[in-house]
Amino acid sequence: MGLRWLLNRLVVTIPVFFTVVTAVFFMIRFAPGGPFDSEKELPPGVKENLAAKYHLDEPLYQQYLRYWGDLAHGDLGPSFKHANRTVNEIIAESLPVSAELGLLALFWAMLIGVSSGIVAALKRNTLWDYIPMSVSILGICLPTFVIGPLLVLAFAIGLDWLPVAGWESWEHRVLPSITLGFAYAAYLSRLTRGGMLEILSQDFIRTARAKGLSEARVVLHHALRGGLLPVISYLGPAIAGILTGALVTETIFHIPGLGRFFVESALNRDYTVVMGTALLYFALIFVCNMLVDVAYALLDPRVRYE
Amino acid sequence: MSLFQKFWLVRSSITLARIAAAAAIAIGIATTGCTARSGGDGKTLEVGNGAEPKDLDPHITTGVPESHILQNLFEALVSKDAKTLDPVPGVAESWTISKDGRVYTFKLRENSKWSDGSPLTAIDFVYSWTRLLEPKTAAEYAYQAYYVKNGKAYNEGKLKDASQLGLKAIDARTFQVTLEQPTPFFLSLLFHHSLYPVPQKAIEAHKEKWTRPENFVSNGAFKLEKWEMNKVISVVKNPNYWDAATTTLDRVNFWPIEKADTEEKMFRSGKLHVTDTVPLEKISHWQADKSGVYNQHPYLGVYYYWFNVTKKPFDDKRIRQALALAIDRTRIVKYVTRAGQIPATFFTPPGTGGYNPKPRLPADLSQLDKAKKLLADAGYPNGKGMPPVEVLFNTQDGHKKIAEAIQQMWKENLGIEVTLVNQEWKVYLDTLRTKSYQAARAGWIGDYNDPNTFLDMFVTGNGNNRCGFANKAYDALLDEATKEQDVAKRLAIFDKAEAILMEEMPVMPIYIYTRTFLKQPEVTGWFANVEGMHQMKFVRLATKSVQ
Question: Residue B258: its chain A contacts at CB < 8 A?
Fold first, then answer.
């Protein structure tokens, strides 16, 4: 492991990067409808002016090369929909918000999911197992746009403990992060349970118990490392997804995060924002998958990279 | 390990989790308790505003949410009465119109200032309108200034010399506009945000970033203080505004809340004073509510279906007429849309610029027999032999419900099969533009309070003529109307044109829009008008905390 492995990964990723940029660039431009299509038709003179301003009148290959040129300088271009913002600015403003929301959601997910999964594995085929697993089915099946408003009705409007929407103070973080984390908690509890069950049936666990180690040490020190492997694999892409895909939660709770731009830009045909968010997502997945591999190496002694 | 130890291990990890969660919620409650339902300080108005603005540059924006904010940041040359929408002095305290209706001379107020204290002069208006027409600005509403002499030529790049435009600053307080031809509704056009004055110094210094709060300069009752994308736009009272004495609010917060549900919940929890809309499913609940927060007003817009006259089956006038007569508009507004809309027995909303069109369509099924006969004449008695009609709408629940109702009505009443097709917004626009549809849902909101904004789109070749309607008699009437200066004569011409429209039926009007919103009772001075325009300088907020 080490530098050679890292360089190896980077080299493999570069052609993927090129493919992503090219594919997204052309796909979004071939979709019917353009960024300035509106219900009220623009006079031809106005349309020409708009096209000239955003270089949409250039031949496609020239626009493509122009994009690479800007990308080399780290310039993701101006947004077509939000006329006075650049993509860099949009990402800089909304990514931290999504990141905070995502991390809080993960916190809830890990807290509820992993602990209930461990308990379910230890107390297999008892109520401690059945109840969390049934609730997790609910979490997997109920979409966020059902859970969110239900929580709002209960805690914000009914009990008046928390605000309905927004992202200002500490209280505003609670409901959105629980809503977002609920589905992930459901998956995590099942994965943890499965992973733990597999590990707990291994010989080395029997040895550890036979040697007289306390149950706490057996579970938390020996079993958990291996039992969490499926969780780690799941978390890699999940982290990338939670940062960019929380569209519904962000819309329900009026949170100025990146997820909304991710989806709305495609619907608006905002070419530059689509490209910018797609590339960001790509970078996130790359980093997260790398971290997953590193975590694997640390957790599982059977894995070794040269 | 003993049973007891196992039990303890399990219990403790769960307990830990519970404690953490409870602590979080407890902190939440402790800090929330007092402020969750605050009614505010009585001087800050919280308004739901639909979507995040595209920009706050009056020359760049096109949408309604932006116009709500801009009409409070800027003041037009000629403003609108808050209740009647009649032209009233704005930046211009008086004006004269030449006998031929081509030259307008505006006298600006003596104490006109920008929000940074610098004087607002006629030169600012020349600069602003020139910038609107400047090709580099790529303003989508540049055509609002095509009424100005040489405006179109300059915007299309055919004319390079801006001094040839019909705009002149005779002196610091006198702004003169020369039009291409007499335009009777020119004064009501002036309220459109594209014709607001924009700050030359700020734009030249900061380019596109001039709309950032730290650079923003405007001339209206409020100035921009905060703009957090997708979160809130906050404007504060502008002390340099000539009528600042009328403004009692210190601050207005515009919340770009896209989800109507969320907005309604925020209203219920006391975070908003006024909402932008009411979720469709909640309308009947709020209509029954006695507290008076529900508001419903006619709006300057019409909901209709296009008939593609360039393709079968709608190239046959009889089929268009038959289908238009075979829907029960009253049932649709009563049971499907349910927000007090008016069945559209005409195309132009009544009251538009004083125009009241003659009803030429039934509001119910009273002419169904005529419809059946028309269909039979066209060769499809009782719908036999008629291929299914495709109805297109952009993906949205409301449009789907209406389309389903109409599908059922045409089946029951005429025996015609209908297939429903929904497309994503941009794809739908593309389909309309290329005329690759048979019948398509559409809505048209008036740009200004005059019938011309509704009727000129049917002129042959007009960019907004999505159905291919081409009628020489109609074109001639519209042309005549734009030149006629006598108001009554002009409205009579429009009615004649509309008669042709309702005879040829290239569109099937369904209902006239209403605006629905919720408003806390302590908000007053929020006048209803068909354009949904609300100037916050007239709005008063009584100090009262909301329960």
Answer: 251, 254
